[in-house]
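Re-run with default settings, no changes from the original entry. Doing this only to confirm the output is reproducible before filing.
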Amino acid sequence: MITFTSVAKRGGGWLPLIGLNALIGSAVTLALPTILGRSVDSIIAGTGYTRWLIIASAAIGLGIVASLIDAFAGAACVAETAAWLRHRLVRQVVRGGPDGSRGFETGDLVTRVSANANDAAQAGPAAVTAIAAIAPPIGSLVLLALIDPWLAAAFFGGVLLVILVLLAFAKRTADVSLAYQETQGRIAARLSESLTGIRTIAAAGTAGREERRILSLLPELHKQGVVTWRILARSGAQAAIVGPLVLVAVLAVGGVQLVAGHITTGDLFAASQYAVLGAGLGTLTGVIGEIARAKAGVQRSAEVDAIATVPHGSLALPSGAGHLTFDHVSVVADGNILLRDVNLDLPGGLTVAVVGPSGAGKSVLAAVAARLRDPSTGHVSLDGVPLQAVSRHALRRAVGCAFERPQLVGRTIGESIAPNAISPVRTLAAARATHAHDFVSRLPDGYFTSLRRAPMSGGERQRLGLARAWPAERLLVLDDATSSLDTATERQIGRTLTEDRHHRTRLIVTHRPATAARADLVVWLDHGQVRAVAPHADLWNDTSYREVFG
């Protein structure tokens, strides 16, 4: 579980280094007023001032070195923590499967993993810096007490006022920081939606309306930003007022004590410098702001980290050709019944078409068969082993999936077909079997063509998606994966699937009667229930069945 403390601890060895340099800086800060005070007394006395000036120069040099090391260590700590957090969140999203991230909009999810994770990574350095910043005022109080107790009393009263200002600032800025990050995520989510459907927006001529929809949240973001700056300005003004009061109080008491002969001129100089340190607590508003942003980032990252991962078993699959069974499978989502008590026994090696009207549950059935989602009740087995008991590696080696709109990943066309770096021979075989080789071979760089720059139609993308799924050993699940193909290519791929020499089970969601006709069996779904399981020719006599295909 991700918490502020757990993220801060990821700083590891950098945090002690940051803390050490902060302490060195604090020690130098506390020592300089005394050293300079002794220098003033030595100058007035006319002897020994050279030694004190050398000590002051050495202390200043040490402070500069500590500041440089602190800056480097802080940047390195944030970078390493952000990398760890992003890796963890991405792994959680990926292992959560399609259902895991269903509650997050894409743009908001990207914002959490990128920008908010970087904010959260500031937790360690900001916490150490805040703790270290307390040392100078406490040290100043102690050293003032050693010089004169009345100086310490005047200093303590002023510092209490500064602390009250900081506490009020911390409370107000925490809520605003979270609201600001959430609004940023919502803007990113709307932008992501628009980029996904940019062609539709352009074709409909609604670019202006879409722009206004995305940017309609800017006033809210502006409002939160203004509130943040007002809080910062108010706290800064309060600190700016209280700070000089601390200095005036200490100097006034110090002047009286100097006239009375209780302290020296150097003591008064040192006291004035310690008073400045106490007043400097007001500059902690920046550090407190970082902590508030880090807390908000941690909270938003923790919500992603809470995504439940899809559990996998440890069993291997016995030998078989992909015998697929559904045993009283039901799927319920948001109160809607998507599949109701589905019972199927599909022998291995067959081509099985899944048909039905829109909303019948075809894609849900395909997703359950491929274990892209789990049933609410019942279970699905492959060659006698429940899918939930099969190891991740064995499952993904046995089952391949292709979709209507495949998301291709990788740097090149070849990587999009074989993301797991299978042999070039198998990559070529998969491309040839799905007729993707026909257009890939015509590209200037062939399989090494950049995926981002490759000009592809919807049908060509589908062929690459089919090629990626092709190496599956037992079960191919194709969810309308040939809908964008031209009739000739679809017929060729349909023949390849029907005459599959690997004798795997092919579960094909389709809207085309020709595809259903080539299948060995048809599963006819209607309102989440199996209406019939039979060959296409037997079902074609039913008028309701023919209406499924329009």
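The CA atoms of residues 360 and 527 lie 4 Å apart. The chain has a mean pLDDT of 84.
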